[in-house]
Amino acid sequence: MGALDSNRRHAVSLVVTKFFKSFFLFLNLYYPRIMSRLMPMTSSRATTDDGNQPMTAAQAGTLKRLAQDTYELDAFKPNLTRAEAEKRIITLTAKLKLLGEPPHTL
């Protein structure tokens, strides 16, 4: 019974991940002002000269935790730059924020 529950959880996480990827793409294309509120790019760390250097250990740890929490394990790659890691951290943090809120209806 445990293997069935594990398989079901994995299937649900894949569906949720696919849904949110599509949802963020839709928002980014049709509602860029909403996306700018969800993911403010005010961090100067992503635009500094060291953006082409490898991500820091702190960024790696944060990104790995966020990737696991949002069921997007492919978001973590060990060879990311600091700028790309920062962008992914911001995106995954926004996703977690949306997941933690109650569902909304129009």
Question: How would you describe this protein?
Answer:
By secondary structure, this protein is mostly helical. It has helices spanning 2-30, 32-38, 57-69, 82-100. Helices cover 64% and strands 0% of the residues. It is built from 4 helices and no strands.
Question: What's the helix and strand layout?
Answer:
Layout: H1 2-30, H2 32-38, H3 57-69, H4 82-100
Supply database-style keywords.
106 residues, globular, 0% strand, mainly alpha
Short précis:
The chain is an all-alpha fold and 106 residues long. The protein has helices spanning 2-30, 32-38, 57-69, 82-100. Helix content is 64%, strand content 0%.
Element order: H for helix, E for strand:
HHHH
pLDDT averaged over residues: 77
**Low-pLDDT residue spans:** 42-47
Helix content: 55-70%
C-alpha end-to-end distance: 39 Å
Shape: globular
The class by helix and strand makeup works out as: mainly alpha
The number of domains is: 1
Task: Report strand %.
Answer: under 5%
How many DSSP E strands? 0
Rg, alpha carbons: 16 Å
Tally of contiguous helical segments:
4
